[in-house]
Amino acid sequence: MAIYSQILANGLMLGALYACLAVGFSLVWGVLNVINMLHGSFIILGGYLTYFAWHAWGIHPIVMLPVVGALLFALGFALQKLVINRVVSAPVLTTLTLTFGLDMILYNVMTYWFTATPRRVTLDLGAVSLGPVTLPVDRLFGTALALALTLLLYAVMRGSNIGRAIVAVRMDRSAAELMGIRTERIYAITFGIGALMAGVAGVVFASIFPITTNVTGTYLGKAFVVCVVGGLGSVPGALVGGLVLGLVESLAGHWFGPQQAITAGFALMLIILLTRPTGLVGVRGYE
Amino acid sequence: MKSGPLAYLLLAAGILVLATTPLYADNYVVRTAAIVAMYGALATSWNFIGGFTGYPSFSTAAFFGLGCYVGAICQRAGVPMIAAWLIATLMVGVFAALLGAIILRLRGHYFAIGSIAVVEVCRLVVSSWSSLTGGGDGLNLPLLHWPPEELMRFFLFVMLGILVLSLIATFLVDRARLGFGLRCIHQNEDAAAMVGIDTTRYKVAAYTLSAIFCAAAGAAYASWTGYIDPTESFQILMTVKVPVMAMLGGAGTLAGPFLGAAAFVLLEEVFWANFLDWNRAILGVVIVLLVFFLPGGLLSLHLRRRAKSGGAA
């Protein structure tokens, strides 16, 4: 049983990271109806900013967290305001192609400036043992941070005026406009928050895993799966989706080998897509 | 959408230029011509599901990659080359019909995500099934011991053949009940079902049509390069590039996808040659500009001008 408690612990830790990684993507998809192909690159951008601040100036990732968040929010807000808002109500083919084109630009800029060498921030915090389970401290810390950030977003969405306005736009754009909400601005803010969450996920990831521009597609794929499995556009949906994906990947990796973990994730997504398109905790009519 | 005489003229001229390249140009140009023909065939097949039916399908790379692998595995088992291509086309066609019956129940964003996931799942399955596919090491195909010029010319005509077949299929579908039904589904699927169109069967037919030419092109491509691997065969980049090509030319038209593919491949060659570090970003800029300034594709430029002069008169 010891091995299974370890797998469970690994799966839950991974799941919290996935939730944090995907929640911004989910929000953008749910509110703007845009599949944001830039999400993976935003994560890596956040990771690189963290790495270079740590490497060049010795700034601790925790200190970089708000800085990266603010920078990515500004980038996302500007992109949506200036570019994506112009076609935001076009069919998915148009918006997906547009964000893919933007992603190609961002990806190229990052590979040119930073090169594709894998890098990570090594904090060397050791590991703790809880009975049969061994947990690396940096990963434990990252998990806690990821969970805290995701819950913070939940609190903001529930408690603040901006959050309530975003939910209102999501429910009914025209009604929200009649209530005096400036939807274009809410779209820009939502995309900014999506980028912000990707950026802070990047800070956490850079402190745990090596990051390189080559994995932008992998992270984007995780965001797809988490979103579809959990349900679109809500923080609890991303949390459930992330945890389920983390557990499924850990178990599949244990039973069928690490290579099959990713396949299992995608298979899970296709099954959920076909049997329960609203996701595990999604609300019908919001798909 | 109707294609005017200009579109047909451009199409015929384009194919003629490609077919005559071996007469006056060097091997590099012939190779580029073959690539143009291949992407033209891929974009023309995507047009069945993406252009006519309006489903945002991103599974081109899955069909292409499976075509590569089925063809390669058959050839390694001793099946003659052309027969291997036919088997690949047939098998991937059946696969697409079965898959389509499942995932075409999804709409909009969910269909888009599902079709991308199909590419990823295919890639992962192929790279982990090492006993059959060689896994990440890839597969070598029997080499063709022909002089390079002859080899290039042969594959140019093979790709052109697939392109022409896909164009003929488009032409026939466009004029048949199927094409009409698909356009109805594009405009309003529920209304189409209401007036008695068997939407599922029509969509599956379009999806299968969009797969078979990709599979044929993939199998031929595998024989051409003599080596395939999972990352090269199932590219997410290709799966987005092909719809972009079709949109660049004009989705839903006969000539548009081919003309878009030609324009895109030529741009790409120029950028590769001159801006090696920045070619991806430049293509990104092209895509962004396309979405903003040319949503109807290159062919719509002509139509727009005609509409304008018509309005003045």
TrEMBL record, chain A:
GO terms for biological process: amino acid transport. Belongs to the binding-protein-dependent transport system permease family. LivHM subfamily. It is a multi-pass membrane protein. It is found in: Cell membrane. This is Branched-chain amino acid ABC transporter permease. Keywords: Amino-acid transport, Cell membrane, Membrane, Transmembrane, Transmembrane helix, Transport. Its main location: membrane. It comes from Ancylobacter defluvii. The chain crosses the membrane at residues 12-32, 52-79, 91-114, 140-157, 186-211, 223-248, 255-274. InterPro entries: ABC_transp_permease (IPR001851), BCAA_transport_permease (IPR052157). GO terms for cellular component: plasma membrane. GO terms for molecular function: transmembrane transporter activity.
From TrEMBL, chain B:
It is a multi-pass membrane protein. The chain crosses the membrane at residues 84-104, 152-173, 204-224, 244-266, 278-299. One of its GO terms (molecular function) is branched-chain amino acid transmembrane transporter activity. InterPro entries: ABC_transp_permease, LivM-like. PANTHER family: HIGH-AFFINITY BRANCHED-CHAIN AMINO ACID TRANSPORT PROTEIN BRAE, HIGH-AFFINITY BRANCHED-CHAIN AMINO ACID TRANSPORT SYSTEM PERMEASE. Keywords: Cell membrane, Membrane, Transmembrane, Transmembrane helix. This is Branched-chain amino acid ABC transporter permease. GO terms for cellular component: plasma membrane. It comes from the Bacteria. It is found in: Cell membrane.
